[in-house]
Fold this protein.
Amino acid sequence: MEILSEAHEALLTVVGKVPDGAWQNPTPCAQWTVTQVVQHAAGDQLAYVAQLTGGPKLDWDPFAPSGTLDVPAAVFVQRAVDASRAAWATVDTGAEAVPIPLPPFQAPYWLAVGACALDAGVHAWDIAVATGQLSPISNEMARSLLKAAEQIVEGVRAWGAYAEALTPPADSDDLAILLSYLGRDPKWTAA
């Protein structure tokens, strides 16, 4: 749970620091603005909630975010993170078959929680770099997220959830290796 808590905090922090005029900025997620990535990131957390609790599924597609929010982005994300935290608190940390919203649709606890953290963490990075913030992912966090990514990502690349892996730059740190594996250019900027 520590890695998920870190990823949630990263997401909440970067969303809370988005400057007023940056919500329509482009992001490393091709074709999506900052607001759309916020919607997607929150939607993915809620998809985990639905799987973990057996509760209702989303009535909107997080892979087709509208770019319009009815509440402030920070509130929208806080609600999703709170729901995610509450749902994960009900899961046995020793469980071998935790339901998740992506292939293989169930995984051991460590991998399930790591996949959820991966989603929150990488989208926190997307939002941060799109809005001129520092990366919220430390090298230590990147190493932990890469362990989950290596088990999950290949199964969802075909869905378009992640682009094809890139070759990391020669001077890559752990974060650059993770981002490259996820199909993101570690040196991406909004400029």
In short: The chain is about 50% helix and 0% strand.
